[in-house]
Amino acid sequence: MQGRLSAWLAKHKLAHRPLGFDYQGTETLQIKAEDWVSIAVALYVYGFNYLRSQCAYDVAPGGSLASVYHLTKINDNADQPEEVCIKVFVPREDPRIPSVLRIWKGANFQERESYDMLGIFYESHPCLKRILMPESWIGWPLRKDYIAPDFYEIQDSH
After folding, report:
1. Residue 121 φ then ψ, to 5°
2. Which cysteine residues pair off into disulfide bonds?
């Protein structure tokens, strides 16, 4: 089912795939990593001026990784702000997504956390380094194929 935003993107020939609506009626779209920056700029111009959250998850063991963006269109006289959920899937072997920090400043720590936990590299992020784990940590703890070190290795890493 195509929503209002999907129709607008299609009208402007911006590549995407509608994924339907969530339980609250928020439209969900899939965007390819190589198209993400141009579509992010278009969404900002369209009025999505607030990045409510960005997160990432491991779709399946050995499968792709996903970076998820929840955008909100905020204006002064909106009782119900319009929202959209964007999903960008990348292969786990080379998980690269362009950073949207220059569009939404709130992406800074959120993209860093996704990098730290899942190893998604956000290209052109000015300070992409670990934010929760020590710099010496090896691996990506929230990947489903991650093998946790034993107790003594965890103690030695601090």
Report:
1. -90, 115
2. none
Contact call for residues 131 and 111 (beta carbons, < 8 A): no
Return the amino acid letter for 86: I
- The CATH number that domain 4-156 falls under is 3.30.460.80
Phi, psi of 114 (to 5 degrees): -65, -40
The values of phi and psi at residue 152, to 5°, are -70, -35
Question: Residue 84 and residue 40: Cα distance in Å, rounded?
Answer: 12
CA distance 6 to 15: 10
pLDDT in tens, the chain (158 residues): 789 999 999 999 999 999 999 999 999 999 999 999 999 999 999 999 999 999 999 999 889 999 999 999 998 777 888 999 999 999 999 999 999 999 999 999 999 999 999 999 999 999 999 999 998 888 999 999 998 877 545 555 55
